[in-house]
Amino acid sequence: MNPNDRPEDFLQKEELINKINALEEAERNLRNNYEDRINDLRLEKDQLNHANSVVLKRLSYKILNNLNGMLGIIDLLKSGHFDGDLGEYLHLLNSNGTHMLSTVNDILDFSAIRSGDLVVQFETIDLKAEMIDLISMLSTRTSIKNNILKLDILPGVPEKIVTDISRLRQILINLIDNSNNSTHDGEITVRIEHLGDIGDNVILVFKVEDNGTGINNQLIEKLHTALSHHNSDLLLRLPGTGMGLAIAKELCEIFDGELSFDATEGSINIFWFTATFKLPVEIIENQDIIKATSKTENGLKILLVEDNILNQKFAKASLVRKQHTIEIAENGKIAIDKYNNDDYDLILMDIQLPIMDGIEATKQIRELESISGKHIIIIAVTAYALERDRKRCFEAGMDGFLSKPFRPDDLYKIIEKCYNEKKGF
Predict the structure, then answer these.
(1) Where does 13-118 sit in CATH, by number?
(2) Rounded-to-integer distance, Cα 210 and Cα 417, Å
(3) pLDDT value at position 285?
């Protein structure tokens, strides 16, 4: 202590030194915590990159495996030297193509979920009819491993619900595929039960049950951890589940539901999920009235704007079966010329086109209509399937949106819907 310092000055200096020391200690702790957090984040990033790499390898293998089988069958059919029924080979082609399409959709949807761009479209559906169609489609796939795929809809399940059927089907496809992977010469049952009601909403539980080899205890524990912690990244790292369960878990949240399972090693597996659906406000009792009034049953004159030859042939063949007359434009500029020189009931517009894209073509057609007072139905048919792409199409003046790839029934439904809305049916 300096002799010239007063006691109170000494105390103030000592207090200041203590504060400085405390601040320095706090700074060291903060720096250490920051460095620890940075290291943890680096580790998480490395683990996620590794998980993504593993998943991409699995998915690439699935795509290549299906593609190899399809190309092999096509070569056999081209040569004319094959044993068995032609229908059987076509059935296999369809099954492999559907499986490959499902894998590609998984990749796109998982990316869309992560970026918040997943497109969801709710509509009234006949649940039983949709489930029968799904079981019929997947039975070919499960029969390859001598597995019988069954459907069991219990009493109390409503006939019609409002849902996004493509997302609901996707969850079930992923769960059925998982069961099929672990089952040989067995049975896989899709069971639907009524769980309860909340106001105008109904809660259903969907169960996929198999009598396969079961799940080993180590994987059971990891699955429980991943599902209970709502961690899709953990699901991605698990062998044998890959992206399927991760996507199924994320999609369940669209329906305010949850995904879980009941399993013991060497025993029956049951993967299940709950989902909440609205019931249709008004069910039209006599659909024949609409069908008799709608012109789509008698055929429409449709302009298909599409530059891909294979897509042209597929869409045209699908539409001709419904008695529609089809003309083709390979780009947006040709589409505008044809629109100006002929009368069409509807335009199916691709987005990515040479010379002039579908968005610009739609804008120019709507400008022409602002003078003429007309309004032709324009439906986007595009591989751009994110929410922002859908928004761009409607902002340009389109009336409907259908993402590729699609089934013929999807095309028929969107045409019927848009045409009937325009005519006020």
Answers:
(1) 1.10.287.130
(2) 38
(3) 43
